[in-house]
Design goal:
The chain is α/β, with parallel strands linked by helices. The protein is built from ten helices and seven strands.
Length: 308
Amino acid sequence: MAAMESLVQRQRSSTAISRRDRAAWLMRPGDTFVESVAENLLDRLQDCKRTFPTALCFGGALKTVRKLMRDHGGIEKLIMMDTSHDMVKLCKDIERDMSSNIETSFVVGDEEFFPMKESFLDLVISCLGLHWTNDLPGAMIQSRLALKPDGLFLAAILGGETLKELRVACTVAQMEREGGISPRLSPLAQVRDAGNLLTRAGFTLPGVDVDEYTVKYDNALQLIEHLRAMGETNALLQRNTFLKRDTALATAAVYQSMFGAEDGTVPATFQVIYMTGWKEHSSQQKAKRRGSATISFEDLQKQFGSGS
């Protein structure tokens, strides 16, 4: 059983790498959705009083994060890591065209098996990449171990409400044309899971917030091309190898009829979950011991009134 699970994980990893390779070839410049997510993620560094001299950015919107990093967080040394050789090569090519004071190095590596020693990094960033990881809690634990005490983990992942319109259209089309359904879109984390994941990985002061983006496309097929360029096409092994042509066309037609706007465009929802967590340090705030309170809620109510 263990050998079978290991084989499946290797197959999924191979599929994920192929998807990242294709994303490197197809990645389009000026993707406003990806840039908005990366900008919002990096803005969280502006709220921190401390600096993060040594940082790691891995997977997902690697190129976009690097382009927008500028003076965020006082980063002096940056390691850019991806499972795809082609994606790393693309980032190297972009780095040559940038004028920056940040010392940048590049690594082909797996987020589930960090090639860095423990307590080496001040900051770990992942933008739109962790939701494809085979072992998400394990990858987050690896991130925490690589951080120095009081180091920061920042991540943005796609949440469970992402592409809800496409899920509905695909289900209706498959039922109509094939008499049944198979998963075409990977299951994604729910908002309620994010805080538990941070706590399970051992981070302190966990923070979770959510944004929803609605992106308009000329048609459903344009949406699929965008997903391919982002490296976000489905990597589930239990799906049918190919989506039949008539089912694909039916999906596009159902999408248009159910969700199309008056101007002919179709919307797609992207739910983004932002997560922040810190590696434990003695300077951080800690919850008081149970029973250590010196005033009761009854006394507070008497002091400030019932509010009624």
